[in-house]
Task: inverse folding
């Protein structure tokens, strides 16, 4: 059922609907909703927040309207034992925006988050726009660590167009997509229960429909209390959902996910590096299936520290020369332009705090 949140929804149609799922964590979801408040986001665009309470023992709605700071807020409460995919679907069904963005309750949106997702969505006819996470343990800590996909972008590129397996990377904790595209794809499938693979399933279906997956390196979110679980129950959930994925999608590209080793075991020096090795095998297999060559290594590196540097890079992009770009200019616009124009010959990295 839907619980009305005050103030009442205005007639203005939002450009973006932020769908948040939560279960039994009222403190986290209040922090997230507060970060999405009108006074906390650097945008004048209309947007709304749809919170899906996915069967919490006690409703999380109390206090959320005050935290939203004049942003239209709706709380949808679901009964039952919880289903992440079904919860996102319930939120998307209630959303009114032209674009949908998804966040989990343990995230916090920095001031640029809404504007960045809108900026990239406006630049593409249709795309799944991915933001990564920055993990920290306390709200005020200046210290943070990168997330697992940083291993991929460090090896390949922050330019997802250079990665054959990019459709595997849109984790549902921080992404946006046009609402019309989401509906055409059928949204998240509730066949996936417990942990894992509902996002890979959505990414695969988007790729199969010709919808590109792109990475906005400025669309990151804060992530709190992130714990990588490797216990038997979590591994069993992930493996069961992978079997569901493989059963749903018999074509070779989808079947190649069997190469991913999400929970490496044994006497290894680094489970994270072992996971990356399996991702590399996965990416190589997708290239083999489509007879795609490996990306050409860059012939030189260009560092962007000023608008003049960015303009210099733009003059070189059309030539097709394989380049590595290290971008230290927050507003260069190069990350968007390179992926919008599908420049697979460009390896791109940011060095922005």
Result:
């Amino acid at each position: 059922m839907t619980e009305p949140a005050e103030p009442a929804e205005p007639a203005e149609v939002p450009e973006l609907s932020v769908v948040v799922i939560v279960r039994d964590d009222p403190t986290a979801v209040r922090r997230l909703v507060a970060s999405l408040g009108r006074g906390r986001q650097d945008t004048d665009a209309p947007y709304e927040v749809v919170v899906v309470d996915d069967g919490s023992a006690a409703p999380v709605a109390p206090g959320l309207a005050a935290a939203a700071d004049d942003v239209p807020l709706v709380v949808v409460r679901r009964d039952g034992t919880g289903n992440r995919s079904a919860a996102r679907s319930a939120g998307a069904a209630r959303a009114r925006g032209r674009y949908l963005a998804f966040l989990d309750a343990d995230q916090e949106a920095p001031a640029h988050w809404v504007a960045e997702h809108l900026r990239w969505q406006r630049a593409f006819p249709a795309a799944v726009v991915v933001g990564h996470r920055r993990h920290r343990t306390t709200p005020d800590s200046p210290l943070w660590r990168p997330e697992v996909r940083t291993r991929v972008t460090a090896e390949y590129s922050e330019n997802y167009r250079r990665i054959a397996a990019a459709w595997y990377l849109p984790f549902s904790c921080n992404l946006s997509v046009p609402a019309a595209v989401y509906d055409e794809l059928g949204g998240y499938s509730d066949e996936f229960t417990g942990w894992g693979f509902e996002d890979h399933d959505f990414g695969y279906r988007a790729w199969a429909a010709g919808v590109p997956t792109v990475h906005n390196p400025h669309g990151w979110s804060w992530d709190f209390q992130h714990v990588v679980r490797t216990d038997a129950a979590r591994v069993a959930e992930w493996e069961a959902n992978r079997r569901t994925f493989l059963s749903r999608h018999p074509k070779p590209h989808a079947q190649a996910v069997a190469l991913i080793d999400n929970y490496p075991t044994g006497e290894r020096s680094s489970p994270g590096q072992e996971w990356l090795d399996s991702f590399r095998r996965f990416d190589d297999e997708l290239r083999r299936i489509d007879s795609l060559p490996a990306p050409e290594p860059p012939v030189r590196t260009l560092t962007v520290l000023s608008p003049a540097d960015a303009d210099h890079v733009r003059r070189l992009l059309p030539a097709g020369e394989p380049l590595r770009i290290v971008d230290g200019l927050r507003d260069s616009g190069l990350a968007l332009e390179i992926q919008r124009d599908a420049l697979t010959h460009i390896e791109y990295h940011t060095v922005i705090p």
Q: What stands out?
A: DSSP finds twelve helices and 15 strands in the chain. Residues 300-350 form one domain.
